[in-house]
Structures are given as C-alpha cells and as structure tokens.
Fold this sequence. Notes:
33% of the residues lie in helices and 29% in strands. By secondary structure, the chain is of the alpha+beta class. The termini are far apart. The model is unreliable at 211-215 (pLDDT under 50).
Amino acid sequence: xGEPFVLQGTYVRLEPLSEAHIEPLVAAAAExxxxxxxxxxxxxxxxxxxxxxxxxxxxxAGAHVAFAxxxxxxxxxxxxxxxxxxxxxxxxxxxGASHQRxxxxxxxxxxxxxxxxxxQRSPVNTEAKLLMMGHAFEVWQxxxxxxxxxxxxxxxxxxxxxIGGQLDGIMRADRPGSDDTVRTSARFSIMADEWPAVKQRLxxxxxxxxxxxxx
Length: 215
C-alpha cells in the first residue's frame, strides 16, 4: 500500500497507528464503555499494547492500514479511537485484462473501528468514513468498500444502511465475538458507482451532525 499516509479533515485526522498512541488510546477507551458490547475495545494498558502490536504486524505484512483517530478542534487535538483498512485484496486478472493494476487494492474493508464515548454521536465517525471511502474510491479507485458488524448490532447495521451500504449477506459463525461467543456477521458493501451518492449522504450527515453539536 506504499508509505504510511495521513487522512486530514476538518474535525478529524487519521494518522498511522504507532506505539506512541497506546497511552492516549487507553485513556480514550476508558471514558465510557457502555457501547462496546459488540466491538472489541481493549481495556487495560496490557490489552492495548497487544492490540497495537498485532495491528502493526498486520500493517508490516501489508494486510491492514491502521490509523489512530484524532479529534481536532476546541484548541486541542486528542486521540479518540482507532480504525483500519482491512481485508485488502489485490486481484489477479486474466492475462491482458485492462483492469489489472499493481500496488493498489481492488477491494477493501473498513473495520476495527471504535471511538471514545465523547466522540460517539459526533462528526468524528462520519468524517472519518468520508475520508477513508474517499481515499479508497478516489485514490486507490477500488471497485468495492465493505463494512461488517455483529448481526446483533442493530444500531451499527442501521447506520451503515443510512449512508447507502447494501446488505450482501449474513456470514454465519464468522469470527470470535467480543462477548466470548462465535459471532455471526452482517456484511455490507458500497460499489464504485454508488460512491457519489454515498459521498453526498455522508456530507449531508456531517453538516447535520455539526449543526446539532453547535446547537
């Protein structure tokens, strides 16, 4: 995926995850853990250290692009969570295919996303998704961006559907659940030709969210 890069918006900055983010991530995760039922979010410094180490191993292997989510504004930049590009796939097209590319993925997922309690229901997540999808569709020019969540996470599923994510299917016994169960996942996707409409929806949600926060 090339050199590490920063995605910069008005309200959020996504910067390459590093060991320097461990302590602020521990503080972010400790704010309010009420909404972490369906998302694994490390709780202790030891858990966060292992979490970051695992993420960096996947980054080094080219399997993930991991970010620390930094909230901007109010006179102080503060780490409020993490997110990643994952399930990165570079397809091998038939010889002579016009779609064959090198060094950029054909499809990606956005996942491993969690936010501090104070950053939830704020412009942070909306702008982060706008930045990540914009990079995926407009820089990498991927054919699809996928998102998935625990099938029981009704709030997350509704949020993905509101921005235009289409349900691809239910993946049974898909992975370990955050609550020590075998998780079944709901998998959604957005295709390249759907991106302009999704981009418009994200911008509208961002503007509405900013207005609500200011009010």
